[in-house]
Amino acid sequence: MKKFLCTSLVLLLILSGITAAFAAEPAKTTAAAADTTTAPAVTASGAAATIVPDMTFTGTPVKLSLDNAYKKMLSDSTGVKIAELNKQNANNIAQGYAENIQDLNKARDYASSTNPAITYDASNKEMARKAKAYATAQGPKNYESELNKLKTDTLSNYYSLLEFENQAQIAKNNLALKEKLLSNTQLKFKLGTVSKNDVLKAEVLVNEAKD
Fold this sequence. Notes:
Layout: H1 2-37, E1 41-42, E2 48-51, E3 57-58, H2 66-76, H3 78-114, H4 123-191, H5 196-210
Antiparallel strand pairs: 1-2, 2-3
Helix pairs in contact: 2-4, 3-4, 4-5
């Protein structure tokens, strides 16, 4: 009987330890999740931003004129760097055709010096010359076209942002008016000049304005 009780006690302690381990694991997971949700975000300007439950981002806003937005796009945009790489690639292609022409000229001179009876086919050289002229002329045009596309996108994004800012300001003004109306309605209700239903309607308008 004593041996049986000891064995039971040992099993009970082992099971209790396992249960405690399983209970502790979700707590660690919950704590890790909490750390993730409270980690600071980073704004476009590089400054740390704090995310609060209503998804309001706090940080130092950056005000840009349209001209400054263009300048920032030209200095920082990945699209500009890609356009410059494409332009350089077009220059390299043109240079390759120029070197091809030089090689063809050397081959012609060598053939003429070794055997004057050999006739030289100039079609390859003419094709290389035209390809070089096309690459030389088209590279800057493509570069300018890519920059114009980036400027157009910047212009569209800039005025879209202004429109969103105006809409946000209108919504804030509307909320302030609805809150003022609610305050006045509550005061009138205390004075007995309006009903409780009027107060509820004013509260609904405030909640809609907040949304």
